[in-house]
Specification:
The protein is of the alpha+beta class. It contains 5 helices and 5 strands, in the order ααβββββααα. The longest helix has 43 residues.
């Protein structure tokens, strides 16, 4: 039993929790330095791309406020083109990635380690947005002008002239006379056609 007790390893009294905390802090500081270095490297490359595109951004009409053209800060800096598209750096810190958010997800519009292909694609994207807006405005103006054109309104028919009462009654009586004359003519024709039958019927009724 005595030998077993002597074999127990004694705890080093010189080890302190404060030393361990200091080591952890140093490790976190080193990792933060790496993160900061990565962020600064990303931002520097995006600033270079923004400087390359500065003439394009300057040519955009002043009344178009849907573009951002700004490099955002954060863990992953981004060069925002508009609300749905931006340029970010890849994990290798060298690849430019031009991305766009759509309804079906995020799509890659351009990706290259060279700045020029990505800058060209961003330039084309901006040009397409400007052209679409111009077409929309021209279409809206044409519709507005077409709406201002007055439709042809047919001329109103002249009002009916009122017929004097005397002439109205004479026309009514004339029509009534024609109807009566027509009835008499029809009766005479019927008598002529059926005269034989009427005579026969008259003879048959005699006593």
């Amino acid at each position: 039993m005595k030998d077993a007790g002597e074999n127990i390893t004694q705890i080093d009294q010189s080890r302190k929790l404060s030393d361990a905390i200091r080591d952890v802090k140093n490790a976190f500081a080193d990792r933060d330095d790496v993160v900061v270095d990565m962020r600064e490297a990303h931002r520097m490359r995006l600033d270079l791309l923004a400087a390359e595109l500065a003439p394009i951004f300057a040519d955009v009409p002043a009344d178009m406020d849907n573009f951002d053209f700004a490099v955002s800060s954060g863990l992953q800096p981004r060069l925002w083109i508009d609300a749905v598209s931006h340029v970010a750096m890849g994990r290798d810190r060298r690849t430019y990635r031009f991305l766009k958010d759509t309804r079906i997800g995020r799509v890659v519009l351009a990706e290259s380690t060279e700045m020029k292909p990505v800058a060209d694609q961003v330039t084309r994207y901006v040009a397409e947005r400007v052209f679409e807006r111009q077409r929309m405005m021209e279409g809206g103006i044409e519709q507005a002008v077409a709406g201002l054109k007055r439709a042809l309104v047919p001329e109103a028919e002249p009002p009916l002239r009122s017929v004097p009462r005397g002439k109205g009654w004479s026309a009514f009586l004339s029509g009534l006379g024609l109807i009566a004359a027509g009835g008499l003519v029809g009766l005479a024709v019927s008598i002529v056609l059926f005269w034989d039958r009427l005579v026969a019927m008259g003879l048959s009724f005699r006593p």
